[in-house]
Amino acid sequence: MGALESLVNEVQEVTRGEPVVVAFSGGLDSSVAAALCREALGPDRVLLVTVNMGQYAYRRGNEIVLEMAEKLGLPQRCLLGQAFQDRIMAAGPACNRCTREIKLGLVKAAARGRLVVTGANRSDTWGHMGVKVCNGYYAPLLDLDKPQIRELALQLGIHPVDTKIGENPGREGCKLKHLLKPLANPDYHGRAVARANEVVLEAVRDLRLGTQLANVKVVGPLRRNVGLVNLWPLPDAGAAREVLRRLGEVPELEEVQLVDRPVRLVARANPSILGDPHARYWLQHGRLQPDFAYPIEVRWLPSGSRRLATFHVVDFEWLDRPV
User: Fold this and answer.
1) What is the SS3 assignment for 99?
2) Which of 200, 279, 308, 322 is exposed most, by the fewest CB atoms within 10 A?
3) CATH code of residue 296
4) Residue 54 and residue 174: Cα distance in Å, rounded?
5) Which of 163, 183, 204 is the last residue of a domain?
6) DSSP strand pairing (296-302 vs 263-269)
């Protein structure tokens, strides 16, 4: 029995043939999970539910959700999550909490007792929990890595190239993950990260740069937004200047810098992070490094703010000469 047939049988067994709801982003993982459910249960027993993050959702991401739902031949429902994000991120970056309480929590509430299927797998932190069925959630891809999921996608007629936004070659998400400070003021901090990351992707498309990684990290003190621009492969000098020029027109950004060499981030952290070497290691290597064009270090400092629940990148330092 092949992997696809085995997983289809597993879905039938776990769900007992009952209708399910798929937490659907339009990306590769959730699309494969949805296609597995369609194969196992039929299209009339699978509902795709997407949480739209408003200004923090990529325009291309919104298009992908609709395109993939149509290609899968499955009904799709949209929930609004921006107001919840504004509240959660006010105390500092908290992607795991956002996933748990908003992206999955809202879907579970909308499911009204139906099993919620997710695309969690070995490549993400949720995939490290090791439990396929737990508390109303089911992750059929939990034991698989990205190459295995891509192989399943091809067998199911899902082409990974169709689901790319362009911010990262492996793990794309909402624009708010690029805000490395508390979302104290959505009209200032939120708009900065939302506009900057839309602008950089538009510039990449217009200039035909062919980058694998394109994002703008927003750092700095609360009163000042600094954009650290990550492009890989690094474009030529003329193209880089044009990208920086466009970003310089984003009114909520006071400074824009191209990451063209290794960099040290200066971060203040909540005591629970500052005193936990594992948490600091994961934040540097798992949360931050994959989105940067060059190697990073992090200098961790204590925070004087009781409101900071996670971390805040207050500054940065170059570690080498430009390439």
Assistant:
1) helix
2) 322
3) 3.30.300
4) 10
5) 163
6) parallel
The C-alpha atoms of residue 132 and residue 268 are separated, in whole angstroms, by 35
Q: Angle between the 146-155 and 3-15 helix axes, to the nearest 10 degrees? A: 90
Per-residue pLDDT reduced to its tens digit, 211-242: 999 999 999 999 999 999 999 999 999 999 99
What pLDDT was estimated at residue 127? 46
Mean pLDDT, residues 1-15 taken together: 92
**pLDDT at residue 72 is higher than 60:** yes
Contacts 24+ apart (CB under 8 A), 282-288: 283/311, 286/125, 287/95, 288/180
Pairwise CA distance, residues 27 & 103, whole Å: 14
Determine the Cα–Cα distance for residues 29 and 117; give it in Å rounded to an integer: 11
Distance from C-alpha of 172 to C-alpha of 65, rounded to nearest angstrom: 13
Last residue of a domain, one of 163, 198, 233: 163
Element (H, E) at 195: helix 191-207
Helix axes of 237-247 and 191-207: crossing angle, nearest 10 degrees: 150
- On whether the pTM is more than 0.85, the answer is no
CB 211 within 8 A of CB 231: yes
Give the residue among 56, 40, 63, 37 at the shortest CA–CA distance from 48.
37
